[in-house]
Specification:
- Helices cover 47% and strands 18% of the residues.
- The chain has 612 residues and is an alpha+beta fold.
- The chain has a domain of 125 residues.
- The protein has a five-stranded antiparallel β-sheet with strand order 6-7-8-9-10. Strands 5-4-11 form a three-stranded antiparallel β-sheet.
- Helix 4 runs antiparallel to helix 8.
- It is flat.
């Protein structure tokens, strides 16, 4: 709000009014014009994904005769399905690491709280949708917001997968954080807007501003909808870059942080960044978006379907008998074409040239070979070889050889998924900043930990800036380590077999703890830190038990001297019985449990590959 003196009286006028909204709408129009090429490409890619690419080819003059058969093979779709399955098999799980020793407790709590926040947001669904968008159009966008209406007004984090068609930024920037303005738009029914904002009654007409839309199968009517714009921009307040926010429809301001005295100085979010994270598949220069597998393989898909069309036309022509008939041949054509009639009537003499079959040249095998080569080219280009889907080349039968081929062939997917983890880490960073800003009231979380289910209370007191003895403040900062949450039965079996091998080699024996720890320093596998901690705890307990046993022996010996008893002999017999009977019986029980576990794992693996 700004103060103005009118007629000797001080009047507060909003900083963001109709004039500022008109200027923002003009900026939005320029951004939309600069993004038209990207929007057209995304819409075209969506048609390829829906196997409607013949319609797109017809628009560009590549469709040929519309009466011909138009086969739409799914090689490109199969590539995207395979890549999406790889991404979901490697669903990420975060680990928060402290940057300073004093923040270890907060990092441990955040490591357990963040997965609960993600689960409450149904993030796996948003993650899946983002990967569909990323594979099809080359870019996925996550929106990380604070929704004050969640939890009955308490508020919580809201994570969504955004549609790139509804987002606009400054053309030519590589990162959206470099854009001067950022817009997120949404078409909303007028009735809903008037219910939520009564001041809009009578001010909303038919849809004015337009955004690019997909080619829906349904008829979508937007005549009674209005374009609601979320406008993000930055200002400088006391030398600090502040994120400002304005929501408007038409020329009507619904909310603006600069019009709110409490928010004008600190901005919409304390982290000061646009609350959007772009996850790019194949990056391009000069744009925060990239291109996807549809862009990479659509040319090969077109050529495959065109060759399929030509082969099918030749096949149909060869399989459908056709004949040359002389106009004076005097043959009843209807009876001749009807294969159910044994007699065909003629008039006059029937000559050899009265009717003759049309012969279609046989298709040479080289054309089928060209088609197969084009399919192989697409597989190689997309890294979607047969081995990734479980198939193998001729002669490869050994399980280790198949596993080696799959491991080598999966490097493209691993690289692609690793890039996605970087975007996931950015999403979690924004989540931590929102927790730091808004979690003022304690919240209850049901946490799954080493001790089972726990209920814990959590707020942002430990994340706030801390005063230093020498003056100033320190804000707790954290690093994020993202790993794959593997869910395949083969990975689980691999980890279980490793644990059994370590057990058989004596890694859990207390007398071999030092050797086991030195060996673990040279190894690398999942949950290595947890295993190291278990061995150290076992070593510590063994040392404590030995110290207590020795102390008990000294105490009993002193008691025997004083009272003349023979408790020391009884104690030694008891200790000997414990040491002698414990390991043997325990080893037998462990061997039985181990055999049962292996048998159960084999049964589970067999069930996993059986059709249901």
């Amino acid at each position: 709000m700004e103060r103005e003196v009118t007629g000797g009286q001080e009047v507060l006028t909003p900083r963001i009014g109709a004039e500022q909204v008109r200027q923002a709408a003009e900026v939005l129009r320029k951004y939309r014009l600069g993004k038209q090429s990207l929007d057209r490409r995304i819409i075209d890619n969506e048609q390829f994904w829906k196997l409607r690419h013949w319609e797109q080819m017809e628009k560009s003059g590549e469709g040929g005769n519309p009466q011909d058969v138009r086969p739409a093979s799914g090689w490109l779709v199969n590539c995207i399905l395979s890549k999406h399955a790889d991404a979901m098999d490697s669903y990420p799980e975060p680990t928060v690491l402290p940057r300073e020793p004093g923040d270890r407790k907060e990092a441990e709590v955040l490591t357990r709280v963040l997965p609960v926040i993600l689960k409450n947001n149904r993030f796996k669904r948003a993650y899946s949708q983002a990967w569909w968008n990323k594979l099809k159009s080359g870019c996925a966008v996550y929106g990380v917001f604070w929704d004050g209406g969640k939890l009955h007004g308490l508020g919580d984090i809201d994570i969504r997968s955004m549609d790139v068609l509804n987002l606009f930024w400054e053309p030519g920037v590589q990162s959206i954080q470099e854009s001067e303005h950022f817009f997120s738009t949404e078409l909303t029914p007028n009735r809903r807007l008037e219910e939520q904002y009564p001041q809009l009654a009578g001010k909303l007409g038919r849809s004015g501003g337009q955004v690019s839309r997909y080619l829906y199968d349904d008829k979508v009517d937007t005549s009674e909808q209005s374009l609601v714009v979320d406008w993000y921009y930055h200002t400088v307040e006391q030398g600090r870059r502040v994120l400002q926010y304005c929501k408007f429809v038409g020329e009507n301001v619904l909310y603006a942080t600069e019009n709110d005295p409490e928010m004008a100085g600190k901005g919409w979010y304390d982290h000061g960044q646009y609350p959007f994270v772009f996850d790019v598949l194949f990056p391009e220069e000069g744009t925060p978006c990239g291109y996807g597998y549809v862009d990479l393989c659509k040319s090969a898909q077109k050529q495959i379907d065109l060759m399929n069309q030509a082969i099918l036309k030749n096949t149909l022509a060869s399989a459908t008998p056709r004949f040359f008939v002389r106009s004076d041949g005097a043959v009843n054509e209807n009876e001749y074409a009807d294969w159910t009639r044994p007699f065909v009537h003629t008039n006059g003499n029937l000559g050899a040239d009265s009717i003759a079959p049309i012969r279609v040249p046989a298709l040479d095998s080289v054309y089928v070979a060209v088609l197969q080569n084009k399919i192989a080219e697409m597989k190689e280009t997309a890294g979607n070889r047969d081995v990734m889907g479980g198939g193998t080349a001729g002669g490869v039968t050994a399980a280790t050889a198949i596993a080696a081929l799959q491991e080598a062939g999966g490097k493209l997917s691993r690289n692609m998924i690793d890039d996605g983890y970087e975007a996931f880490a950015e999403v979690l960073t924004l989540c931590i900043e929102l927790v730091r800003q808004f979690y003022d009231m304690p919240r209850q979380f049901r946490l799954l930990g080493k001790k089972g289910v726990e209920f814990a209370s959590f707020d942002n007191r430990s994340l706030r800036p801390r005063a230093l003895l020498m003056g100033g403040y320190r804000v707790p900062e954290f690093d994020l380590e993202v790993s794959a949450q593997n869910e395949t039965p083969y990975k689980t079996m691999e980890y279980n077999q490793l644990a059994l091998q370590l057990f058989q080699m004596g890694f859990f024996r207390s007398d071999m703890a030092e050797q086991a720890l030195r060996c673990l320093e040279l190894m690398e596998f999942k949950n290595k830190d947890a295993l190291t901690e278990v061995i150290r705890e076992g070593q510590k307990e063994t040392k404590q038990r030995a110290w207590l046993t020795e102390a008990l022996r000294r105490t009993v010996a002193m008691l025997d001297k004083v009272q003349g008893s023979h408790l020391a002999e009884a104690l030694e017999r008891e200790l000997a019985d414990t040491v002698g009977s414990g390991p043997a019986g325990g080893a037998e029980r462990v061997q039985i449990r181990k055999s049962d576990a292996v048998a159960q794992q084999r049964a589970r693996t067999q069930q996993a590959v059986r059709p249901r």
